[in-house]
């Protein structure tokens, strides 16, 4: 049955719907099905929490509404998704005003599907919509003009028509049509990322489940890492295993080996794995939208002293950063603990960016807070319990070609960091030793 529309928005305070988590208990990694004999993920609680976090961020932003084209923001606000193909189309969009409930404009028959299967949304707030498909619909601005007028009518009806509106990402013609109607368009992405930075128990459980899937994939990779296998075959193996376990998107798998380790190319090829190679992998995938970013380094058969030293340094840098992750700590303190660009052979922090840093993890691969020597010394933020980090380190070996790359996924609890990426990485793993 469709949700009955009222004149009042659904208001729920985050404190009311985010029950005190038992931090003294292990975080669940339950099966993917729901059962009647234990509570696993409560998806309605998850929706209410995410919407309440967005309302709170909007209320303190000076904006009257948020208009979202970013698929992660749309899912966060509406709990709707129609597949990863939509991620770069910029044709689905959602609107939330400070005085109303979410609207979703979706592709083709998806809006009708939402009216049938998403009772947490108002029936008449699920609408069919189509914009430019990144220019594919042509130069005629009629679609953008009509959409802007529809949005303006909602803003006026909900009493925020004279206030600024926050946008995350958008096709330029859409922004121009909003501006023609006198709408003050501002950056809304920071407001939305502020909402998303602290996770509730359901988000933490989904992130833990996603990480558990990668634990299993690394066991398979370790068994498969033998001379003669290709980097691309490891990618195929991991991708198939993840989809079998229930992944809804295998976004990317880095597979890097031998002389390709230094510098890090961030891609994979059909290179053949050879004896003594150092090889590292990053598994980026999601379960029910919540992503992993999870590196591990192996040596194939044997390891040299230089390779072992690079791994030990990468692990030491990582442990130093993780030990500092506590509520109330300023992000610049963690940034200063990370190695400088010169320590890994780069001339600037811009060149070295993304090799030794921490980034938030959730529906998006890179969320707030992002901690690096490039950004955090200028704009530090305070860490909070419920944040989730991917902590990455990289150390080239003195042989000039090898390198170690490690990453741990870390939940920030009230008492400090809790690692949820559990495939062993304290010491350099040797796959299929001779």
Task: Note down, in words, how this protein is organized.
By secondary structure, the protein is of the alpha+beta class. It folds into 2 domains: 14-196, Creatine Amidinohydrolase, Chain A, domain 1; 201-431, Creatinase/methionine aminopeptidase superfamily (Creatine Amidinohydrolase). Helix content is 32%, strand content 20%. The protein has 12 helices and 16 strands. The protein has helices at 14-17, 43-59, 71-78, 110-117, 142-157, 172-180, 189-196, 201-224, 231-245, 305-323, 331-337, 349-352, and strands at residues 65-68, 93-97, 103-106, 126-128, 165-167, 185-187, 249-257, 278-287, 290-291, 294-300, 357-360, 367-371, 388-396, 403-413, 416-419, 430-431. It has a 6-stranded mixed beta sheet. A hairpin with a 6-residue loop joins strand 13 and strand 14. The protein is globular. The protein starts with 13 loop residues before the first helix and ends with a strand. Mean pLDDT is 93; it is low at 1-17.
What characteristics describe this protein?
alpha+beta, Creatine Amidinohydrolase, Chain A, domain 1, Creatine Amidinohydrolase, five-stranded mixed beta sheet, disordered N terminus
**Can you give the helix content as a percent range?**
25-40%
Count of DSSP strands: 16
Query: Which secondary-structure class do the elements indicate?
Result: alpha+beta
Examine the secondary-structure arrangement and name the CATH architecture of the largest domain: Alpha-Beta Complex
Q: What is the H/E order?
A: HHEHEEHEHEHEHHHEEEEHHHEEEEEE
Number of domains: 2
Radius of gyration: 23 Å
Number of helices: 12
CATH-assigned fold name of the largest domain: Creatine Amidinohydrolase
Strand order of the largest sheet: 4-3-2-1-5-6
What portion of residues belong to β-strands?
Answer: 15-25%
Q: Ends: how far apart?
A: 63 Å
Please, what is the average pLDDT? 93
CATH class of the largest domain: Alpha Beta
CATH homologous superfamily title of the largest domain: Creatinase/methionine aminopeptidase superfamily
Global outline: globular
Largest sheet: 6 strands, mixed
Poorly predicted residue ranges = 1-17
């Amino acid at each position: 049955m469709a949700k009955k529309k009222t004149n009042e928005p659904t208001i729920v305070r985050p404190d009311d719907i985010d029950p005190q988590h038992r931090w003294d208990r292990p975080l669940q990694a339950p099966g993917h099905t729901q059962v009647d004999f234990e509570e696993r993920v409560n998806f309605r609680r998850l929706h209410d929490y995410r919407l309440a976090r967005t309302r709170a961020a909007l209320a303190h932003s000076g904006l009257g509404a948020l208009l979202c084209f970013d698929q992660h923001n749309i899912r966060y606000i509406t709990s709707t998704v129609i597949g990863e193909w939509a991620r770069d189309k910029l044709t689905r969009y959602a609107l939330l005003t400070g005085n109303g409930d979410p609207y979703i404009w979706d592709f083709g028959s998806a809006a009708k599907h939402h009216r049938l299967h998403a009772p947490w949304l108002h029936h008449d707030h699920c609408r069919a919509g189509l914009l430019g498909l990144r220019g594919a619909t042509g130069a005629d601005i009629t679609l953008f003009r009509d959409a802007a007028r529809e949005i303006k009518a909602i803003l006026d009806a909900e009493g925020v028509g004279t206030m600024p509106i926050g946008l995350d990402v958008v096709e330029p013609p859409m922004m121009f049509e909003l501006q023609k109607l006198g709408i003050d368009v501002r950056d809304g992405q920071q407001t939305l990322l502020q909402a998303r930075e602290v996770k509730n128990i359901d988000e933490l459980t989904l992130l833990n489940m996603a990480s558990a899937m990668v634990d299993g994939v690394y066991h398979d990779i370790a068994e498969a890492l033998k001379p003669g296998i290709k980097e691309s075959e490891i990618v195929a193996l991991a991708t198939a295993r993840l989809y079998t376990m229930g992944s809804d998107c295998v976004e990317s798998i880095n597979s890097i080996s031998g002389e390709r380790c230094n510098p890090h190319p961030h891609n994979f090829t059909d290179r053949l794995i050879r004896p003594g190679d150092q090889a590292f992998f990053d598994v980026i995938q999601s379960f029910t939208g919540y992503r992993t970013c999870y590196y591990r380094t192996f040596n194939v058969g044997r390891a040299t002293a230089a390779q072992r030293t690079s791994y030990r340094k990468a692990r030491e840098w990582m442990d130093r950063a993780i030990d500092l992750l506590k509520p109330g700590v300023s992000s610049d303190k963690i940034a200063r603990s990370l190695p400088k660009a010169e320590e890994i052979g780069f001339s600037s922090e811009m060149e070295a960016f993304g090799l030794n840093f921490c980034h938030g993890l959730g529906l998006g691969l890179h969320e707030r807070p992002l901690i690096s020597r490039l950004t955090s010394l200028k704009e530090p933020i305070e860490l909070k319990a419920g944040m989730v980090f991917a902590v990455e380190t990289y150390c080239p070996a003195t042989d000039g070609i090898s390198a170690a790359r490690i990453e741990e996924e870390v939940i920030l609890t009230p008492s400090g960091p809790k690692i949820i990426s559990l495939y062993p990485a304290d010491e350099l793993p040797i796959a299929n030793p001779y």
